[in-house]
Amino acid sequence: MKDVDILSLAGWDWRDNMPVRLLSNNPDQMLASSSARLLDKNFKGGWNLKVGSAEADQFPSNGLRSKGLHPEIAFVGRSNVGKSTLINALVSQKLAHTSKTPGRTQQINFFYRKPYTQRYIVDLPGYGFAKAPVKVVEEWNVLIGAYTRTREALVRMFVLIDNRRGLTKNDKEFLEFLEELGIPHQILVTKVDRTSLPDLETCMKEISTHLHGSKAVYTERILHPVSAKTGYGVPALRELALSLLSDIIR
């Protein structure tokens, strides 16, 4: 991304429509602190697949409500938005299957890291266009809906938007769906290494305009730019993910 130094350490506050500083966005600076090294030790690598669910009754448990539920975070986006690649960058491990062919994630994958066997990073199938029969794509959408409606321990849904394409019709419909259900969610603007700074800012402003117009309530106010290829924004996202997965839900 051109002029990346200007945007260094910056996300975008859609409510105020302006750049804001992100924590630990510089990988070299981040690993210099003891807390960063602890984070690196407790999050990178060692993740495993708990289950790949093609039906809602295959979803794993988050624990007992009486003893507190273990939190989970989920990643979703349009097919070919770079979701699985970003998850792999987040955990520094080839965990989620990646492909240049849209629609390769065909079930909901729950990943865990010992000893926290009921705290999940969840990889959802891509919505929208995919090289699969219409009926299959519809089944994926039903599965995503079932997941979103039933997971009490879902503390944040990360919705990935390709900055080169901006908000598509499918993106807008899914964000509206999350708002209707009251699901806390945050937008990650992906593939920022493939664009210029002015184009990225234009994308951020367009997303902000849409969120204002739709009177979004459950959208976290920081739009978070990331590049799985260069690592831009990934350390800050890793820090955020760890904080979200830390507390028992009571």
**Content of β-strand:** 15-25%
From the alpha-carbon coordinates, what is the Rg to the nearest angstrom?
Answer: 17 Å
Specify the overall morphology.
Answer: globular
Mean pLDDT: 82
Low-confidence stretches: 1-9, 24-33
Number of beta-strand segments: 9
Count helical runs: 8
Class inferred from helices and paired strands: alpha/beta
- Helix and strand element order: HEEHHEEHEEHEHEHEH
Could you give a short account of the major beta sheet? 9 strands, mixed
| First-last Cα distance | 43 Å
Strands of the biggest beta sheet: in what spatial order? Answer: 2-1-9-8-7-4-6-5-3
Percent helix? 25-40%
Mind sketching the topology for me?
Layout: H1 4-7, E1 10-13, E2 18-21, H2 27-30, H3 34-43, E3 47-53, E4 72-77, H4 83-91, E5 108-113, E6 116-123, H5 134-150, E7 154-162, H6 169-181, E8 185-190, H7 197-213, E9 222-225, H8 234-244
Task: Based on the model shown, name its key terms.
single chain, alpha/beta, 9-stranded mixed β-sheet, 9 strands, globular
